[in-house]
Specification:
Helix content is 37%, strand content 13%. By secondary structure, it is of the alpha+beta class. A five-stranded antiparallel beta sheet has the order 5-4-3-6-7. It has a three-stranded antiparallel beta sheet with strand order 8-9-10, with no helix packed on it. The radius of gyration is 35 Å and the shape is elongated.
């Protein structure tokens, strides 16, 4: 009726929703549309409280809603309440990864406290075995010694990490311990390791610089960057995070003794025996031949690390040369003696 009083003075329709209580039935809604037509309204919008799983506002308290649910008829039961049970039943049958993603989305949208509590209990912590495998990696980043220890599930996936700093201040060492605990809790609740690697790799702060102790990671922009380069390479096979790829590792040369057949005839003079070239030797010779070939500069620049530091002499971006960085503009080398 308020809209009908203002309608004659407005050329278009009025954008005002008629909010109905939860007890409104089909006849009430029908009468609203009929009255709007009789009063000459150009448009009509209706909303019944509780007809959606999530809504921005509600003028009812939890106690009143609970009392209304107990006294309401089955025909007028809340749509949200009837929708909760199928969602929970389906979620219990899904894999933890899908449940985690669905739970985040529904928990952000739902306003029902009881429903949130039920859905939160579905996402459970995956506990590690009491006796677990893993490895300990010792390294030095910018002259600072660091130990990274990992704990794995029975299927070999990462479940926890420990970070131990050698001769470091108590505050920084404690912060790194708390950081490792936070990462471990996230891994055990289903957060993918890829998310942590993409988020924390290339983080820059001191100490940073050349890395010692790892055959593939040779430079890191921070302690955190080194940790997630290491984890990404060891558990995800991310060769784009390391400076020395496994395929570029030098093939060890094995000196083999010449093989003499036992059926070789005996001569008075000492026979000249031709050494047998082994398969490893042939690979090493082929690798040396490939390295001696002339490569195009563009081919070389394609392999430049995305975190290559700038030259401290001319400011030009450097490229990796072995385990060091070289400036193509002025010829300066970083990290090499």
């Amino acid at each position: 009726r308020m809209m009908a009083a203002a309608q004659p003075f407005i050329s278009g329709a009025i954008s005002k929703t008629i909010n109905l209580p939860h007890e409104a039935n089909v006849d009430d809604i029908k009468s609203c549309y009929e009255l709007s037509w009789k009063l000459g309204l150009k448009a009509n919008a209706l909303y019944r409280d509780g007809c959606k799983l999530s809504q921005p506002l509600s003028n009812k308290s939890e106690k009143k809603e609970k009392a209304d649910k107990e006294t309401a008829d089955t025909d007028n039961a809340p749509v949200a309440a009837s929708a909760e049970q199928p969602v929970i039943r389906i979620a219990e049958e899904l894999t933890p990864e899908i449940v985690l993603e669905a739970a985040k989305r529904i928990l952000n949208e739902s306003t029902d406290t009881k429903f949130k509590r039920q859905l939160s209990n579905i996402v459970e912590k995956k506990r590690l075995p009491n006796r677990r495998n893993g490895f300990t990696q010792k390294g030095r980043v910018g002259g600072q010694t660091i130990f990274v220890r990992t704990g794995e599930y029975d299927d070999g996936t990462l479940g926890e990490i420990f970070i131990d700093m050698h001769k470091e201040g108590a505050s920084f060492r404690s912060l790194m311990n708390c950081f490792s605990i936070a990462i471990s809790v996230g891994l055990q609740y289903g957060v993918p390791l890829e998310e942590f690697v993409d988020k924390f790799a290339f983080t820059r702060f001191e100490p940073s610089g050349m890395v010692e102790g790892h055959p593939n990671v040779k430079n890191a922009t921070s302690i955190v960057d080194y940790i997630f380069r290491l984890l990404g390479f060891e558990y995800l096979g991310r060769e784009d995070l390391v400076q020395v790829k496994p395929s570029e590792a030098p093939i060890p040369f094995k000196e083999e003794k010449p093989v003499i057949s036992e059926f070789q005839p005996v001569f008075e003079a000492t026979p000249i025996v031709t050494p047998v070239v082994s398969l490893d030797t042939e690979r090493a010779m082929k690798a040396e031949a490939a390295k001696s070939g002339v490569r195009d500069m563009q081919d070389h620049l394609r392999e430049v690390q995305s975190d290559a530091p700038a030259c401290n002499v001319c400011g030009h971006i450097t490229v990796r040369s072995g385990t060091c960085y070289k400036c193509l503009n002025c010829g300066n080398s970083l990290g090499c003696s």
